[in-house]
Amino acid sequence: MNWILDGLARIGAGLLSLLASVGARTLFAGQASWRIVAPPFYPRVFFGQIAEFFYFSLPVVGLTALFTGMVLALQSYTGFERFSAEAAVPQVVALSIARELGPVLAGLMVSGRMGAAMAAELGAMRVTEQIDALSTLRVDPMRYLVAPRILAATISLPLLVLAADIIGILGGYLVAVGQLGFDGPLFIANVMRFLTGGDLSSGLIKAAVFGYLIAVMGCYHGFTASAGAQGVGRATTSAVVSSAIAILASNFLLTALLFGIV
Amino acid sequence: MNETILRVQDLSVTLGGKSIIENLNFDVAPGETLALLGGSGTGKSVTLKTILGLLPAQSGTIELGGVDVFAARGRDAAQARARIGMLFQGAALFDSLSIWENIAFRLTQAEGMGRKAARERALAMLESVGLDPALADRRPADLSGGQQKRAGLARALAAEPEILFFDEPTTGLDPISAGLIDKLMADTIARTGAAAVMITHDIASVRKVCQRVAFLHNGTIGWTGRVAELDRSDFAPLHAFLTGRD
């Protein structure tokens, strides 16, 4: 009997630990989100973060979208060719990029780039007492460091995804027209006819949620880093892993909600 | 007028279920300089962080300028904390800002001073701590350890605090730089009339800068007295600390 009780105790401890971990992140997100709307604000920090998130992430997100669109055109063409449905390639490329691949791949790329960078920067500030120094200088670290990052990420990721949508469809267009013999104007016309505002906006809503989650995870792990360089390294890894999981899990929920499946 | 700028009464702090500080009592008069001495793990840094509001206390009170910082809320608490200036062990300058932006940080971000006026104040502060104003637009990483400490001191002084805290100010510096920092701290305290609390292992630094010593042992004050009385103390742990022998 003891081994059953031990097993149950371990499962219970694991569950409690998981709940505590989710609770800590939720509390952190709540405290930071409140500071986004309550003054004082730090516009210089905010615009600096917009540059980091949008401008400096654009190349990596653009390249990811370009190659994804190209591969998607090739894959859908070879698949649809089996039942003579090659003409659907433009629609499939556009819908897949706008609804799913644009936001998810941009989110994952940005979580690797910016989520890690935020955790490393704030983690380094934590272990070198710079965050403590902010408090002694009468500046709330959550308000100065975290709130502008969360707001910048929530605004920037939809803009990045919009760019990724255009570049991804362009990638599909280049392959379809240049390699698969599609008519260029017809490709564009098909994309325009089938792609609705709802498809685009669902992707952008997802992107805003993903941006928020990336910043919350990055800031949380950086803010709570400890134990020197090793702790900062751990915080960086945890930020990327937890934001990737949060993106994938929330993507399922958002897809179900946005397309009325639940 | 308050007779003390800092009063710590019956302060107890527990971290991770372990008692670090128990019923700690000491106070600092305006213009007075107190050294908190003690071996590693005796609770010096925890005491400092609790006074600064960075760690919670289980019980006790901390008064800054007569205001109980645990009981005070909002503006009162902020005003009480505004009396503090802090020099961190590693200076803790913000990497992403220039030296002048670091020094003027509190002025621009918390006190609403314009950037032009704040920059002028920062340049004056740089000179007052013996740094070339030409360093104003450099980043902290461009400065030596001693220069960073000076810039950190300038930042602590920029808002004209009534009490300064120094956390291991000479740790990691060569003897010449440490001597210069000691002199700078002593001169600054004499010039501004601010009170100061210094946490350190460096007895030479204590003798140069401080008037009074509180020796922490087992999480509470084991001995307190004037600096001149240090060598005459018969408190065995302090004697061991001073001589380096058990």
Write the topology of this structure:
The complex is a heterodimer of chains A (262) and B (246).
Chain A: H1 2-37, H2 43-55, H3 58-80, H4 89-127, H5 130-136, H6 141-178, H7 184-194, H8 197-223, H9 228-258
Helix pairs in contact in A: 1-6, 2-6, 3-4, 3-6, 4-6, 4-7, 4-8, 4-9, 6-8, 8-9
Chain B: E1 6-15, E2 18-28, E3 33-37, H1 44-51, E4 59-64, E5 67-68, H2 74-81, E6 84-87, H3 99-103, H4 105-109, H5 115-128, H6 145-157, E7 163-167, H7 175-192, E8 195-199, H8 203-209, E9 212-217, E10 220-226, H9 236-243
Parallel strand pairs in B: 3-8, 3-9, 6-7, 7-8
Antiparallel strand pairs in B: 1-2, 1-4, 4-5, 9-10
Task: Produce a short descriptive summary.
Chain A has 262 residues and is an all-alpha fold.
Description:
The complex is a heterodimer of chains A (262) and B (246). By secondary structure, chain A is mainly α. Chain A has one domain (43-258). Chain A is built from 9 helices and no strands. Chain A has helices at 2-37, 43-55, 58-80, 89-127, 130-136, 141-178, 184-194, 197-223, 228-258. In chain A, helix 3 runs parallel beside helix 6. The longest helix of chain A is centred in the middle third of the chain and has 39 residues, at 89-127. Chain B has 9 helices and 10 strands. Chain A binds chain B through residues 42, 124-125, 128-130, 132-133, 135-139, 144, and chain B through 49, 52-54, 78, 81-82, 84-86, 88-90, 92-95, 105-106, 109-111, 155.
